[in-house]
Specification:
It is built from 11 helices and 13 strands. It starts with a strand and ends in an 8-residue tail after the last helix. By secondary structure, it is an alpha+beta fold. Strand 6 and strand 7 form a beta hairpin. The strands form 4 sheets. Strands 1-6-7-5-4-3 form a 6-stranded mixed beta sheet. This is Protein kinase domain-containing protein. Keywords: ATP-binding, Nucleotide-binding.
Length: 336
């Protein structure tokens, strides 16, 4: 379902030049007025968010969450301790209706709940004219939202506050664990990687580069669905056939940008996907030698010789189709 866009007033982003300098104060990430991370006054916007059907977490909500969490652990035979910082912080106040922010989240994020059904959400505040909002709004539009290649985190609402140049993006709360099941089969693991590559193909087909692909920016709903988050560095390149960038500061920076040179934004994403696959293999304990040649090509130091995301996905599918069924059913502990 596409998100509801409330009080919309912003327009599409301006056209980009052929060469985009991602390190300049006029165009990149968190250094310019529109694209830097912001710290909104959550209390001041609480009622606006509630009128749209969402409730920010209060001390009562946090205490109830911990109580349910402990009950679940006890039912499974675990011993629990209530001396946890989050619970202690929620108890240190006399008003249970007071907002209680998760200290582990940055200032532009707040946990909450959808009032009508109790769905847990994470609300992100961004500038109304930020590139992140432009990209997320576009990828969440009715014409793109239901494309099976689109693995953007589900956006439940886009709440604009024009007077403050703010927009609150309401996202479903998913887990940060790339592979949550233990044990997990090789099929599920490869399926997770495939969705990550497929979304890059989808974005690139719409002239968008994420520019910060990494494991920390991939979430799961525990139902074998995976999604991208954090489009703070993302850029649109509509009308530019061979875009070039320099100086971007994503988690996985390819050598051409790290050395101060010029790079292809799409091939930057391909490099990051290759690095992400290597890290995922290390974290999950999977050893998939069939992927070595593909990952090697994705990490080619010459960006012009790296495959496109579409070519990488096609190669990935070919590799997966050649792995025996019995091996695909194996868990990581048996896949060596």
């Amino acid at each position: 379902m596409s998100p509801v866009l409330r009080r919309s007033s912003s327009s599409d982003s301006d056209s980009e030049s052929q060469l985009s300098d991602c390190s300049s104060s006029s165009s990149c990430g968190d250094e310019d007025e529109f694209n830097k991370r912001i710290a909104p006054n959550w209390c001041a916007h609480r009622l606006i968010i509630e009128r749209c059907g969402f409730r920010l977490d209060t001390r009562r909500d946090v205490k109830l969450w911990y109580q349910h969490y402990w009950e679940s652990l006890i039912s499974q035979g675990y011993t629990v301790t209530k001396d946890l910082p989050g619970y202690t912080r929620a108890c240190n106040g006399s008003d249970d209706n007071e907002l209680c922010k998760d200290a582990g989240l940055p200032e532009n994020l707040f946990r909450g709940t959808r009032c009508k059904d109790g769905t847990k959400v994470v609300i992100k505040a961004v500038h109304l004219r930020s590139r992140e909002y432009d990209v997320v709004r576009y990828l969440s539009s009715p014409s793109l939202r239901n494309d099976p290649r689109n693995h953007l985190i589900p956006i439940l609402d886009l709440i604009e506050v024009p007077k403050d140049d703010l927009v609150f993006m309401v996202m479903e709360e998913w887990s940060s664990h790339l592979i949550p099941e233990t044990p997990c089969t090789l099929r599920l693991y490869l399926g997770a990687l495939r969705q990550c590559i497929e979304h890059a193909v989808f974005m690139h087909s719409h002239h968008i580069a994420h520019l910060d692909i990494s494991i920390r920016n991939m979430l799961t709903d525990y139902r074998s669905n995976y999604a991208y988050i954090d489009f703070e560095l993302a850029r649109r390149f509509d009308g530019i056939h061979h875009p070039r960038i320099r100086g971007c500061r994503g988690t996985e920076v390819p050598p051409e940008l790290e050395q101060g040179g010029v790079g292809d934004p799409y091939k930057t994403d391909v490099w990051a996907l290759g690095r992400m696959i290597l890290r995922a293999c290390s974290l999950t304990g999977y050893h998939v030698p069939e992927l070595a040649a593909l990952v090697g090509a994705m990490l080619n130091p010459n960006f012009e010789q790296r495959p496109t995301a579409a070519v990488a996905l096609k190669s990935f599918d070919t590799i997966m189709s050649c792995i025996p069924e019995a091996r695909l059913r194996m868990s990581s502990g048996c896949n060596h």
